[in-house]
Amino acid sequence: MSGFDSEFHGKVRVRTVPSTAPEAKAAVKHYGWGSHGLVITRGGRVVYTASDHRANAYDADVALRLQLGWPMQCD
After folding, report:
1. In this predicted structure, what is the pLDDT of residue 37?
2. Distance between CA 69 and CA 63 in Å, rounded?
3. Predicted TM-score of the model (pTM)
4. Which among 39, 42, 57, 72 has most CB atoms closer than 10 A?
């Protein structure tokens, strides 16, 4: 997911938070995750979440493309 900044040509900002940070611990509690997860927001609104090992780059890519109105990639 670290490559999303360049893949989406500056339309996306990726920010990771260490799992030991208070912000991460609060997110785990708020979303009811086991230990970690992924949140995508747009304008302060949560548009996608995935918990623990369900969080993956493919699903995040799809969610971002849908939000931006971009076509899905054809591989």
Report:
1. 94
2. 10
3. 0.84
4. 39
